[in-house]
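Supplementary Text 2. Reproducibility record for the structural model of the 209-residue chain.

All settings were left at their defaults, and a single model was retained for analysis rather than an ensemble. We include the record here because the model underlies the residue-level annotations in Supplementary Table 4.
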Amino acid sequence: MSHATPIVFVVDDDVSVRESLELLIGCAGWQPETFASAQAFLARPRVHTPSCLVLDVTLPDLNGLDLQKRIAVDRIDMPIIFITGYGDVPMTVQAMKAGAVEFLTKPFDDDVLLSAIRHAIDRSHTTLGHEAEIQALRDCHASLSRREREVMALVVSGLLTNQIGFELGISEITVKAHRGKVMRKMQADSLAELVQMAAKLGLAPAPKS
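Retained model, structure tokens:
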């Protein structure tokens, strides 16, 4: 992922805008992909490389703000830069509140757009790195047995070995064995790190009796 050339998607129904942005983006060292409509863009499978979307507000089918709503949940790693021939304050506020990183009114300076793209790509890279980290943690947690998950939940909630043994009806030696396996499978070097992993996974601490 880190070695892939970032992709800059452009959705604009004006062919001259698409062609000029394609040239500008390519010269900056990124990979441009252009689309004349929102539907054409939505038909493109999601990528797992750093990317951003340069999006016109006014489009022939689905407008830019509606497209933003459609992709807000499953493409958080792809920041959006809006471009428009006519912008007003309410439209800008709506776009920025929904997560857009920039809102540019045509004509805009090339350097302004390139700076916005650079910022968006950096943000995408960070988000993808976070997603990869969470997926790796999910994979490790999925490798735990049911009992190991129970022990992990009680360990990160702050219970001591003897308390965990009492909760689960097993000996302290067995608890220690399970805890050791949990630490190895989760690749945690300390209890503090295991607690942080549980928090990142959104695992609720086990209730204390």
